[in-house]
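[step 3/7] inverse_fold.run input=structure_tokens len=309
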């Protein structure tokens, strides 16, 4: 191409000066061709990010015949390369929150919202009878579960533990931005050994630990290429080395009657229940489902005082 030649837009790219309605149509076709499962939603969310409105605002602007926002083509190109939508907008919804996320931290999934719900329900139950509740979130990542609990249970004090430096930085940003006061105490450390000073005093332990086996590489490029491996792979041949450490930590942290809620893969439900049974310190052990009806979390109640089998 000569220095003075015009550059031809990529196929499916919005044309310069295009109306928003046409840009949305072309962008959705471009993302669909790239294998994106929700192309129209994604292009509307990218436009909403640029325009500073929600999806409804984008749809209204499209009906009015407004022009497409500057920068939409560049974002569409990156999304077509399977860069996560949340990395492009810088945020991820989680229950009532909009969390800041980006490279170096696991993007919270809608499935984990139900894990948070179980922890929130138990925290509310305890708080209603005692006036306060102590919750620990192990492997907090972006801080999603910890902040959701503090947001929805105002009397809760939540201790959140994250080992990875990058994820800890994202969690710190989210705590500072979304919560006033110190109701989330963020600790950088190993979730399996941290918070020894709280042993036997915690009402709820909740965790979404890494649990993918080493040979089960995710298919989606957004996960495989962009979520940090430390947040995905649970170590050991079955991917459950870290979850076993979380169960052991919960057994020492929880007060008698305290509840553990831990996310796992659908195929790991039986193994997760076995982990809790093996400690000899949990009763009422069972599996709960996510909003899609899949077996995605184990729960158990601490039945013995610390130090007893």
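[step 3/7] decode complete -> sequence:
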């Amino acid at each position: 191409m000569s220095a003075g030649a015009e550059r031809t837009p990529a196929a499916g790219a919005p044309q310069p000066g295009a109306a928003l309605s046409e840009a949305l149509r072309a962008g959705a076709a471009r993302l669909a061709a790239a294998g994106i499962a929700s192309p129209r939603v994604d292009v509307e969310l990218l436009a909403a990010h640029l325009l500073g409105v929600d999806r409804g605002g984008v749809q209204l602007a499209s009906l009015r015949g407004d022009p497409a926002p500057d920068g939409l083509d560049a974002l569409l190109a990156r999304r077509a390369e399977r860069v996560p939508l949340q990395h492009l907008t810088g945020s991820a919804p989680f229950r009532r929150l909009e969390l800041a996320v980006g490279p170096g931290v696991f993007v919270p999934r809608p499935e984990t919202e139900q894990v948070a719900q179980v922890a929130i329900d138990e925290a509310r139950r305890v708080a209603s009878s005692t006036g306060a509740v102590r919750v620990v979130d192990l492997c907090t990542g972006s801080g999603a579960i910890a902040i959701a609990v503090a947001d929805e249970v105002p009397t809760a004090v939540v201790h959140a533990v994250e080992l990875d430096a990058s994820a800890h930085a994202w969690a710190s940003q989210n705590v500072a931005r979304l919560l006033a006061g110190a109701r989330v105490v963020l600790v950088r450390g190993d979730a399996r050994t941290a918070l020894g000073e709280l042993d036997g005093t915690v009402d709820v332990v909740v965790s979404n630990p890494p649990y993918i086996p080493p040979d089960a590489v995710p298919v989606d490029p957004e996960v495989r290429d962009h979520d940090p491996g430390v947040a995905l792979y649970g170590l050991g041949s079955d991917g459950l080395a870290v979850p076993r450490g979380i169960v052991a930590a919960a057994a020492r942290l929880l007060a008698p009657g305290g509840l553990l809620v831990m996310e796992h893969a659908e195929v790991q439900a039986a193994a997760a229940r076995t982990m809790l049974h093996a400690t000899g310190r949990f009763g009422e052990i069972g599996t709960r489902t996510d909003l899609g009806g899949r077996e995605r979390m184990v729960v158990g109640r601490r039945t013995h005082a610390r130090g007893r089998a």
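[step 4/7] annotate
The chain has twelve helices and nine strands.
The radius of gyration is 22 Å.
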